[in-house]
Amino acid sequence: MTVLSPDPHRPQDCVLLRELRHRVDQGIASAIDLVSAAVVRAEGVEAKAALSDVVELLHAHAALHRALAMPQGGALHDAATYIRKLGRAMRQSLLDRMGIRLTFATEPLPLQSERCWRLGLIVHDLIVSAAKHAYFDARAGEIKVKLTRIGAVVNCVVLDNGSRLARADMGRERPISCDLARGLGGRIEHGFAAEFTSVVLSFYLSERERQANWSMATRRMRSQRPSAIGADPKVLRAHWAICCPPLTAWTRYETGLFKPHQNRSSRALA
User: Fold this and answer.
1) 3 state SS for 13-79
2) Residues 72, 170: Cα–Cα separation, whole Å
3) Radius of gyration of the chain (CA)
4) What is the pLDDT confidence band of residue 26, given thresholds at 50, 70 and 90?
C-alpha cells in the first residue's frame, strides 16, 4: 500500500490530499444523516437505541478523521499536543468500546507540520495494532504512549500490557508505519515479554526543529535555575549537553509498565 505524503516541491500533492480528506468528511457526514433519519423512522426502543449508538460512533470516527489531518501552516507544531488530541479521538471511536485504557507521558516537542503528521499516523497505526492484536487475557487492557527527546533524537514508545502469539510477524504487520518512519529518517524496534509488547520509533530532529527545541530548553533552564546557569550561551550549551547527552543506547528507556533489557527483536529502517 502506498503512503499518501505531500511533496513540498509538488503543491498539487497537498491539493489532492485535502480533496481526499474533504470527500471522506462528506462520506461520513452523509452516513450520519442517513442513520439519523433511520432513528426517526425506527420503531421500538431497542432499534432506536442501536441506531443512535451507530450515529454516535460515526461522529467519533469523524472526529478521529479530523484529528489525523496534517497541521496547516509553515510554523512548527507541538507533537505532544497533536498526538494527545489524536488519543482523545481514538478513545471515543475505538478504545473505550473495547475497554482499553490509553495514557500519555509526553513533553513539548516542536516539529514541522508534515513530520508531526507522520508521527501522528505512526502512533495511530501502532495503537490500533496493539488494540486489535494484543492478548490481555484477564488483565485490564492498557496502552501507553511515551514521547521524549534526548539531545537531537526523538523516541516515541507505544506499549501495551498484553502479549502476542506471532512474534515473528511483528515487523511485517506494520508496513505503513515502516514507510512513514523511513520518511522521518528513523527506525522502529520491537520489544516483548510474557505480559507486554512495545514498539519504539526513533528519529533525528531536523535543523529547524533542533533550533526550536534548543530555544525552548534554554528558556526552561533559565526559568528553573537562573542563578546557577545565568545567561551565558556557552554555559547554557554545556548544561544542555549534560542534561541531554548524545543518544548511544536509545533502547534504554523508562516505560513504567516493564523493566528494560527484556528480550527484544529489532527492525532497522535503512
Assistant:
1) HHHHHHHHHHHHHHHHHHHHHHHHHHHHHCCCHHHHHHHHHHHHHHHHHHHHHHHCCCCCCCCCEEH
2) 33
3) 21
4) confident
C-alpha of 154 from chain center? 12
Q: Which three cell numbers stand for residue 167?
A: 512474534
Amino acid at residue number 239: H
Q: How far apart are CA 74 and CA 72, in angstroms?
A: 7
93 residue type, one letter: S
Nearest to 145 by CA among 101, 210, 209: 101
Among candidates 219, 186, 221, 214, which has minimal Cα distance to 200? 186
Residue 257 in contact with residue 142, Cβ under 8 Å?
A: yes
The model's pTM is: 0.73
pLDDT per residue as tens digits for the range 51-77:
999 999 999 999 999 999 988 888 999
Q: SS3 for 206?
A: coil
